């Protein structure tokens, strides 16, 4: 099983804990102080990593697209370009945020929304680079990213399985230090569209860790993803879901994110082994409530135990485990036995 090495101590895949990404994206409203609060909140919630989105607007969008009016309640400007410029941190602000995350003690990275941003992120030495669903059909970029041989986490929204196979082939031709995330790109995703069992197909098809980037409301789907084997989990984080911005509605507050992390760790601990066995924590209940074999009536030494003579009850002291019922029937008593007395090995022959 391929493991993706993020740092000396942190690996993704195999038996490593699920790598949980707190996606700030653009929920910082273009305000570096809010960005820092979100970094701290991600750390306090126990996320494995905090993530932003780095864009070089000229590289990602055409001039005409940037001039398009963006007239909706989530807009930060009259045109899409003005809106995006408001939300985009400069390279020096990125360096400041990276430094702040190091001080706080949480891994920091960003999605590279284009090749220029990819180079910048390599330059500042983030531990891995995310490639979002906006580039799941951008084979040129994916080839470029693969050639740089840095760990990648790649989302696969907005394309079908054949494109995901192409992504896998492109990157794995260069290296296997990447993860594939199932993702549906809608804000928010209706539950019926999550198609979470795609994860099982990804697990069967691809020899790299797979995970889930969730844009649906709440935490239930993300938790189910972990139960289905997601080794990476990404959810948006926000200080306030009522803030202006496209992604707040499908984000988690710091309190919800903390609960998500706790629930993920509980789920991981609970998946355990597929071998059904009696575990140590059951012993008190076995002692207290498990049934055993007892006499259904008073009988004497030398008498035969007929079916109605043996009962299955919670008893003190215990008799033989009730699973042995059939083995006792038609055996001969070796001792006199009173009604309700336990039946143990050696009491019959
Ligand atoms: C596909 C993709 O990039 N999705 C990102 C990650 O989930 C989103 O955060 C977008 O950047 C966001 O929804 C864009 O919103 P607006 O267009 O209002 O800036
Ligand atoms: C678009 C992004 O992610 P996803 O496709 O996983 O939502 C991103 O990380 O910028």
TrEMBL record:
Query: Catalytic activity, per the record?
Result: aldehydo-N-acetyl-D-mannosamine 6-phosphate + phosphoenolpyruvate + H2O = N-acetylneuraminate 9-phosphate + phosphate
UniProt xrefs under InterPro entries: AFP_Neu5c_C_sf, Aldolase_TIM, PseI-like, PseI/NeuA/B-like_N, SAF_PseI/NeuA/NeuB
UniProt xrefs under Pfam families: NeuB (PF03102)
Under Enzyme Commission nomenclature, its number is: 2.5.1.57
Q: Which top EC class is named for this enzyme in its record? A: transferase
Which Gene Ontology terms cover its molecular function? N-acylneuraminate-9-phosphate synthase activity
Q: Which residues form the PseI/NeuA/B-like domain?
A: 38-275
Entry protein name: N-acetylneuraminate-9-phosphate synthase
Question: Which keywords describe this protein according to UniProt?
Answer: Transferase
Q: Name one GO biological process term.
A: carbohydrate derivative biosynthetic process
Superkingdom, natural source:
Eukaryota
């Amino acid at each position: 099983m391929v493991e993706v090495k993020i740092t000396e101590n942190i690996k993704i895949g195999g038996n490593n804990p699920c790598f949980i990404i707190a996606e700030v994206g653009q929920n910082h409203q273009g305000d570096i102080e809010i960005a820092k609060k979100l970094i701290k909140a991600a750390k306090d919630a126990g996320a494995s990593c905090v993530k932003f989105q780095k864009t070089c607007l000229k590289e990602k969008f055409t001039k005409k697209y940037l001039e398009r009016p963006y007239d909706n309640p989530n807009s930060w400007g009259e045109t899409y370009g003005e809106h995006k410029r408001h939300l985009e941190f400069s390279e020096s602000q990125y360096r400041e945020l990276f430094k702040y995350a190091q001080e706080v003690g949480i891994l920091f990275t960003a999605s590279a929304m284009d090749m220029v941003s990819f180079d910048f992120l390599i330059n500042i030495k983030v531990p891995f680079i995310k490639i979002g669903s906006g580039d799941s059909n951008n084979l040129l970029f994916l080839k470029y990213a693969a050639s740089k041989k840095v760990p990648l986490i790649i989302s696969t929204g907005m394309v079908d399985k054949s494109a995901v196979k192409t992504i896998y082939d492109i990157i794995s031709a260069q290296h296997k230090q990447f993860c594939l995330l199932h993702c549906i790109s809608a804000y928010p995703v209706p539950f019926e569209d999550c198609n979470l069992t795609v994860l099982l197909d990804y697990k069967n098809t691809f020899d790299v860790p797979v995970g889930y980037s969730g844009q649906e409301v709440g935490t239930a789907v993300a938790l189910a993803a972990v139960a289905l084997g997601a080794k990476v989990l990404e959810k948006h984080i926000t200080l306030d879901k009522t803030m202006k911005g496209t992604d707040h509605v499908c984000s988690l507050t710091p309190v919800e994110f903390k609960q998500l992390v706790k629930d993920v760790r509980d789920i991981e601990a609970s998946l355990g082994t597929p071998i059904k066995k009696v575990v140590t924590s059951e012993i008190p209940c076995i002692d207290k409530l498990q049934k055993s074999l007892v006499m259904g009536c008073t009988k004497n030494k030398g008498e035969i135990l007929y079916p109605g003579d043996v009962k299955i009850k919670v008893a003190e002291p215990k008799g033989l485990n009730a699973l042995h019922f059939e083995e006792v029937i038609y055996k001969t008593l070796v001792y006199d036995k009173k009604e309700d007395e336990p039946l143990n090995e050696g009491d019959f022959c």
